[in-house]
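A common beginner's mistake is to predict each chain separately and then try to dock the pieces by hand. The better habit, illustrated here, is to supply every component at once so that their relative placement is modeled jointly.
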Amino acid sequence: MKHIFFFILVFLATTASAKNPIISPTFDDLVKSIIGEEEYIFDDKNITIKVPSFADNPVQVPIYVDATKIKDAKRLIIFADLNPIAQIVDMPTTKLLPIFSSNIKVAQETPLRALVQDSSGLWHVGSANIHSNGGGCDISSQASQNSEFSKFLGQTKGQVFDKKGITRIKASVFHPMETGLIFGNTKFFVDTILIKDGNSLIDEIKLTPAISENPRFIFETKNKYTNLNILFKDNDANSFELKF
Amino acid sequence: MKKLISLTTLTVCGFAFEFDLKPIKVSENSYYFEGKKEYFSPSNGGDISNSAFIITKDSVILIDTGSTVEYAKQLKEKIKTITNKPIKYVINTHHHPDHFLGNYVFKNVNIYGTTYTLNEIKSHGELYVSNMANLIEDTAYTTKSLSPNKVLKEGTLKLNNYELEVYLYDGHTKSDVVIFDKNTKTLYTSDLIFNQRALATPHADLQKWIKTLEKLKKFDFKTLVPGHGAVAYSKNVIDENINYLTFLDNRLKNSVEEGLDTFEILSLDVPNEFKNYSLFTQEYERSIINLYPSYEKKF
Ligand SMILES: [Zn+2]
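With all components supplied together, the output reads:
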């Protein structure tokens, strides 16, 4: 019965374009809460999402999203349907390319979605399923239980790579990315990344504690910058700088 | 719900997985059971790693106890068809669940393990049991974790006047036991050697592992019993393992230098000799995903 009900819902929600490739009970509500009534289409052709074939370690699941086939992408949002903290990242993609690589936590097997808005305002949705036994979001961060932790908090590392006209930025910061979902633990995570050229802001990226502890990122841009640097800010008003 | 149903069937029908274990003779007094070159699944009941036993004057020494209590029970029965001497000693080569979760069947005998292995099993044993239940379902439901009750040290181990040489190494885990039986020139390498099966690296340190394998090449053995895969009679098998680990180590180092993403590494070509290993695709992906962050930390 439940299945028939879902089927009807899905049927009604489906327009002439491609159907939702991975049905989940929370997708419709999540999309609505993020983009409201704006229009979207399922577009796996133009959005590549890479995830492990099986995520053994639910607190460190690598993901890679590439939506560079959508030429005029303005914004990229990634979320996992069945995570208690569904949204993962929200970033502008006018100066940065619509590419994102990091590690995330998953609470159970879940679809992963990348929403990419083009210049006409239409959202393209890419989907992939993460197979895992889960347990990633309600496990307390290992680092936050480490007494040595305060010594390393905010240590940054990074490198810039030049490849065929594209600048790739790899960056990481030592941070617990504590979700606050465990009783007694307070939310403590990097919520903003500012990518700058000297003092001028290139782009501001918003994060949630669905990102794994000691997060690492890959960003790319076609523009040339001479004085790239990064500022990681957490929800406790700390900021950590990375200079290349 | 599915689990509840199968659990009921288990108790009502007395269902037990049939392992169909076959002892393979290694020398006049030693045998091993070869695990399937597969990943854990309900259809193999978790029988994916090797166990071995040595018959002494009036006892049996068992090396590793498999993934479940049910496997270990059937192992015990099979050993009885070869000898009526009692299993008085068990040795756990390392803390991976496919090598020790059968321990509970031998709760009244001496179970040897290194201090590290003993502590790991004590603190994570039950977690391994529930993971095993997720992977192989029914067959794991009667399994309980039991840690070793005797500390294994490097040097000569005399069991019932039978001498074994014990070596403590690392690389596959932080504590890997190698046993050399001089009497038969048999080298039991635990999971430091996988024969024609892709190496598993969840707790590995590749550089330490390679160094350990260089040491194994110095042993004057006739037969080598690996942790996974068939017995081998030459040092080629050690070189094959060294080659694979060196390849993996270099690939990870080069990828850091080129600034690659995990999935870009996975899309690179791999030499055919490795692709032919059983479970290559799964273990290779797992290795890159697990190990890459520790290499990236160094940049
Ligand atoms: Zn192992």
